[in-house]
Amino acid sequence: MAKQQDLGVFDFAVKAEKDGMDFYMKAAKKFSGNEDLKKLFVSLAKEEAAHMQIFMDFKIKAADKGVDQCLKSPDIDAYLEAVVQDGLFPKGETINKRLEKVETVAQAAAIAMAAEKNAILLYTELAKLSRDKDQKKFFEKIVKEEKSHLVMVAGLRADNDPMYAALRFGRFF
Fold first, then answer.
1. Which domain holds residue 104?
2. Is the residue at 53 inside a domain?
């Protein structure tokens, strides 16, 4: 069994948002020939960067209040450990290797959609477990933003993958 990492909720969230920012910036570079696509990926990267900053700021506030500790429990620790092992987005060298294999916008969108879904699940769970009302509202706000990312990326995927569009909308165009 892998050694368990000592990674707090906010540290993990900062890392996850940074991974997302890196993924979207590399995807923007890879698909730089399509200006609309590049703009979308850069926009998503900027939103992930904003989330990262919010988590860093919130971590400081939570530490002052001792709030992060309210999320320490065997259930959340096991859940976080499972998510940390896989991550939300491909990380490190893996992100470069994974994007090298990506040949289409639809493939990049599929990776991003899986990561956004994982983020939604994680932050929804953290909102449920939070005992601090400000922290709970914060996680709920991030969930809404991650859902909007998922919708944007799903639309992008539908525009570039006829089979996905058919499954999503129930018909071929």
1. 9-169
2. yes
